[in-house]
């Protein structure tokens, strides 16, 4: 593979279902890349494609001008950036850290402040589009941070996504992603309820979904998650536990803003039930199971009472 040495050297930390294809897209564009993953097997496809694997986040930062991170929780992002053997121990003044995880805006601002005290720039750049968007480089990328740093990194974002918008100062990307996740999860709850009602009334949910896709109720959520609900395909996609985490961030943000979110709070209870039932590793379309279990329980109670 031809490496373009005039371009910035990149680092990537967090090579899961989203990070791995994103890093591969940057590699395919010819950028030199250093990677770190807690599980060496996760880095293997990147190494095979020409990346260099190292033993810590600090080592990635020493070798890179721009470091991308995409881990799971706010605590994970803070540990990778600021913890022992973290980016802050290896980053040089003038470098850029781009956090593409979905985390708390407050955590994002703490990370940005600590890095900028060392002369290291920071952008929060969470994404939407799922694994398919990561693979096809069609993600929506919502960015918070300095406009000048955003413009500096924009050519890299263009290798990852199709919709790329600067939303404001540090944390603005995360606030935008919280709004996205609120709309997505509440819509998915509506889809689950509609399809469960169709089945309960003796209709074919697949045909009901087909009609809905031709009307005003049509949406990307109905298209993707509705198809998985109808097909009982709960094994592919993004884990429910991640939406549970994201909706927790949404509700915390709303509490800080003094804004009630009744629909969001109701969906959070549904997600709590899924987590309690051990469905955290299933695709988010498993949301329909909460309703189905409630129907089964109601039928059992009616049978017991002879009603």
Give your account of this protein's structure:
By secondary structure, the chain is α/β, with parallel strands linked by helices. It folds into two domains: 10-169, NAD(P)-binding Rossmann-like Domain (Rossmann fold, 3-Layer(aba) Sandwich), CATH 3.40.50; 176-305, Orthogonal Bundle (N-(1-d-carboxylethyl)-l-norvaline Dehydrogenase, domain 2). The chain has helices at residues 19-28, 40-48, 57-63, 74-82, 87-90, 105-116, 130-136, 147-157, 172-200, 205-213, 220-231, 240-257, 262-276, 288-305; strands at residues 10-13, 33-36, 52-53, 66-69, 96-99, 121-124, 127-128, 139-144, 161-168. The chain is elongated, with a radius of gyration of 21 Å. Mean pLDDT is 94; it is low at 1-5.
In short:
The chain is α/β, with parallel strands linked by helices.
Which characteristics define this entry?
307 residues, alpha/beta, Rossmann fold, 2 domains, 6-stranded parallel beta sheet, elongated, disordered N terminus
Describe the secondary-structure layout:
Blueprint: E1 10-13, H1 19-28, E2 33-36, H2 40-48, E3 52-53, H3 57-63, E4 66-69, H4 74-82, H5 87-90, E5 96-99, H6 105-116, E6 121-124, E7 127-128, H7 130-136, E8 139-144, H8 147-157, E9 161-168, H9 172-200, H10 205-213, H11 220-231, H12 240-257, H13 262-276, H14 288-305
Parallel strand pairs: 1-2, 1-4, 2-3, 4-5, 5-6, 8-9
Antiparallel strand pairs: 7-8
Helix pairs in contact: 1-2, 1-7, 4-6, 9-10, 9-11, 9-12, 10-11, 12-13
């Amino acid at each position: 593979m031809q490496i373009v040495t005039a371009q910035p050297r990149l680092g990537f930390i967090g090579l899961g279902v989203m990070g791995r294809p994103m890093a591969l897209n940057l590699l395919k564009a010819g950028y030199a890349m250093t990677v770190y993953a807690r599980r060496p097997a996760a880095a293997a496809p990147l190494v095979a494609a020409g990346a260099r694997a190292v033993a810590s986040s600090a080592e990635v930062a020493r070798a890179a001008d721009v470091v991308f991170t995409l881990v799971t929780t706010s605590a994970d992002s803070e540990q990778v950036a600021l913890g022992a053997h973290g980016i802050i121990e290896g980053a040089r003044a003038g470098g850029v850290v781009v956090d593409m995880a979905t985390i708390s805006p407050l955590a994002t601002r703490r990370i940005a402040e600590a890095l900028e005290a060392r002369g290291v720039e920071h952008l929060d750049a969470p994404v939407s589009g799922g694994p398919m968007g990561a693979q096809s480089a069609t993600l929506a990328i919502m960015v918070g941070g300095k406009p000048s740093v955003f413009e500096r990194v924009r050519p890299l974002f263009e290798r990852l996504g199709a919709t790329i918008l600067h939303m404001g100062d540090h944390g603005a990307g995360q606030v935008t992603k919280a709004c996205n996740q609120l709309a997505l999860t509440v819509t998915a709850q509506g889809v689950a309820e509609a399809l469960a009602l169709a089945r309960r009334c003796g209709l074919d949910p697949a045909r009901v979904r087909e009609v809905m896709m031709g009307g005003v109720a049509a949406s990307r959520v109905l298209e993707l998650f509705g198809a998985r609900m109808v097909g009982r395909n709960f094994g592919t996609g993004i884990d429910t536990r991640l939406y549970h985490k994201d909706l927790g961030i949404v509700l915390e943000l709303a509490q800080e803003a003094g804004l009630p979110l009744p629909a969001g709070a109701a969906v959070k209870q549904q997600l709590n039930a899924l987590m309690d039932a051990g469905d955290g590793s299933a695709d988010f379309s498993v949301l329909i199971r909460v309703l189905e279990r409630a129907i089964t329980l109601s039928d059992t109670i009616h049978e017991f009472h002879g009603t």
